[in-house]
Design brief:
Number of helices: 3
Strand content: 25-35%
Structural class: alpha+beta
Distance between the termini: 15 Å
Radius of gyration: 19 Å
Oligomer: single chain
Largest sheet: 5 strands, antiparallel
Order of helices and strands: HEEEHEEH
């Protein structure tokens, strides 16, 4: 295989992973439609992998359909939201009725999901450009 073909395969692979990650998270965020009351049990910012940034987690306790849930999530958590939450206070969260353990505090995409979606599309476009104009 030529180096150009390897680069194209790498770009396509990375773009598929980025787009799939973004769409999976967006689907999970927007599948949480049922609004309920929940208590914030805490927040945690953890360093992840090789990144200098933090992954933001929030933990909520809530009751749905007679069952108690105590769950941590990073889905849809922005820095602004993270900084505004106070332990022990009650908030409105959104859960997925089919999977009540899945929740989001805000039903909107974060910059991470949007970034990965756009970056994945751009990488796919670069791979298509390389294939069309440099290999054919």
């Amino acid at each position: 295989m030529k180096s150009m073909e390897i680069a194209i395969l790498l770009f396509v692979s990375l773009s598929v992973i980025m787009i799939a990650y973004s769409l999976r998270n967006l689907f999970r965020i927007f599948s949480c439609k049922t609004e309920i009351d929940a208590y914030c049990m805490g927040t945690d910012g953890r360093h992840s992998g090789f990144s200098r940034g933090k992954t933001l987690f929030v933990t909520f306790s809530y009751r749905y359909d007679g069952k108690d849930y105590y769950r941590e999530s990073k889905l849809g958590v922005t820095m602004k939201l993270y900084n505004s939450l106070r332990q022990g206070e009650q908030y409105r969260i959104y859960i997925n009725e089919k999977k009540p353990e899945m929740y989001v505090v805000e039903r909107k995409a974060t910059g991470t999901e949007i970034f990965y979606l756009i970056a994945g599309i751009l990488l796919l476009a670069v791979a298509a450009f390389m294939y069309i104009f440099l290999l054919v």
